[in-house]
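quick one, 473 residues, struct below
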Amino acid sequence: MRIETQQQFLESRTFDEINVGDSSVLVRSLRAEDIKLFAIMSGDMNPAIGDQEFANSGMFREVIAHGMWSASLITTVLGTQFPGPGTILIDQALHFTRPVRLGDTITVTVTVKQMFAHNQHIVCDCSCINQDGMQVVLGTAEVLAPTEKLRTKRVELPDITISDKYARLQHLVARANGLAPIDMAVVHPCDLESLKGALMAAEAGLIDPILIGPEAKIRAVASDNGLDLKQHRIVNVKHSHDSAAMAVTLIRNGDAEALMKGSLHTDELMAEVVSRAAGLRTARRISHVFLMDVPTYPRPILITDAAINIAPTLEDKVDIIQNAIDLAHIIGIPEPKVAILSAVETVNSKIQSTLDAAALCKMADRGQIKGGLLDGPLAFDNAVSIEAAKTKGINSVVAGRAEILVVPDLESGNMVAKQLEYLANALTAGIVLGARVPIVLTSRADSAETRIASCVIATLIAHANRNNQASPE
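---
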């Protein structure tokens, strides 16, 4: 019996080297990625296989593998192990006796049943058994065995990352399952994306939107794009500036507990938010956080500040970091690892960001920043790559494992965030912190998906605020 091993070379067995009863074995476990990759390759998007909700209502009550995934394991044995390279599949007859479920470990056995010298065909019995000893596939395969012995170097297959932004969005939305929708003032939703994003967030059960703006314009956008506004409140005001002022008033009166920016300029909204006379200031400096789910990074990553504070001082960065740490706690990261970024990983008196990083780390040691683990200065590669950190000799619990990236200034942070979104297909949420309520501050170019993701974060923050207000001093 031949059992698969990851040898450097693949070597075939010719017809003359094979006897009846010879066999080969392959063992594979089914992962979620295998199902997705097989669906992408074949185009078979059967919802019983790819849709968890649909599968739960089906015969097997869970997601299962494509039947031909198991069959492909048989051809893997034939083509790479036994007989090996040069084998040609002539005929195959298979019976699928049981489904293969996520996590199942399948043992594939191919055994020679008959041999025909006149054409050098071989008929093999094929069996796939799961980890419980139950048969999932049974059948036969007829192959033309190699006539010459072949030995070839095993080709290393590339690593594949599946970037399923929709699945990642649904996973994020699931964080808010069981939470009541929050009243959100949507400021001037007078274009398709901002109005659609608010309505999609409402449909997802995240928010009850209060649409603030010129009513005729909002209704025209809805009518032109087939959007239904019957269930939603509209506060009619004349201009975008009036929309921002009215939204802040609703927050101050307790009629809403979050804001969402629509199709007005950021400065116009934030001028009302930061107004000392009638705004939404707190003792904490207002800052922005991008929450990003990057397919190639194993954990969520928060980038701050990339939208509000242009050139933050050391004192500003204390609040910026504390805001981000508090958000990390809300989304389930109990002790976030905070990397304070610069161009280098050593303190240099000529680079102000390295001096700030050193001071901030010492401030955390003294309890001036609480709830996270800080390290810096760190270059971007050292913050997100353990290998890069080790190469530089950096011994740190943060390096290579960062969950919060604190950027030196708005320009660098905005570039990092936009690069991850557009070049790495990151799912992005944007939120403003440090005000009385969370503010969804998306770009006018952002998609409805980004707006929904941001509403999830705002909903989680609003419920955390409710809990904090309900807790005794």
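The longest strand covers residues 105-116.
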